[in-house]
């Protein structure tokens, strides 16, 4: 795809990202600081976006600029993973951010160093696979210990928490979240 084709397709991509997140033009305008009419013109391809529009949109969508505009890949094909630390856990994204599902390696600290556990609920589903160690999974009043090689999947509207079952070493999982679940796990207060 040449530069002209990439630029011609940007509007439809912008509209697709907004619709995937379920945002109205007004909601996106409020979050990005760009007027709803400008966003509408960008999405319809009536104007080409500049950095002053793309940067705030990339922040709202949580995407790098090259993915936002579908820039052709050049150079090193490796995905450079940056750890995200939230709520005492370490999340390592396992791919380029985008799409309805996101995969993360999640490292749980030893139980002796973990924060106090609280039940959480949020829209979506969660799936995880234990790579190393063992974790406690609490779903409402049911508690299960999962060991390396075991997986679990559940509706996240069920009150739940996950924690390391081992007091002296970290536990590692691979977790797949839908967009609502990812926002709760990675950007919640």
Automatic annotation (TrEMBL):
Protein name per the record: Transcriptional regulator, contains XRE-family HTH domain
Keywords: DNA-binding
Annotated SMART domains: HTH_XRE (SM00530)
Biological source species: Glycomyces harbinensis
Cross-referenced InterPro entries: Cro/C1-type_HTH, Cupin_2, Lambda_DNA-bd_dom_sf, RmlC-like_jellyroll, RmlC_Cupin_sf, TransReg_Diox_bact_type
UniProt GO MF annotations: DNA binding; DNA-binding transcription factor activity
All copies of domain HTH cro/C1-type, residue ranges: 14-68
Alphabetized Gene3D superfamilies for the sequence: Jelly Rolls (2.60.120.10), lambda repressor-like DNA-binding domains (1.10.260.40)
Record-linked SUPFAM superfamilies: lambda repressor-like DNA-binding domains, RmlC-like cupins
GO cellular component: cytosol
One Pfam family named in its UniProt record: Cupin_2
Statement: the UniProt record of this protein carries the keyword DNA-binding: yes
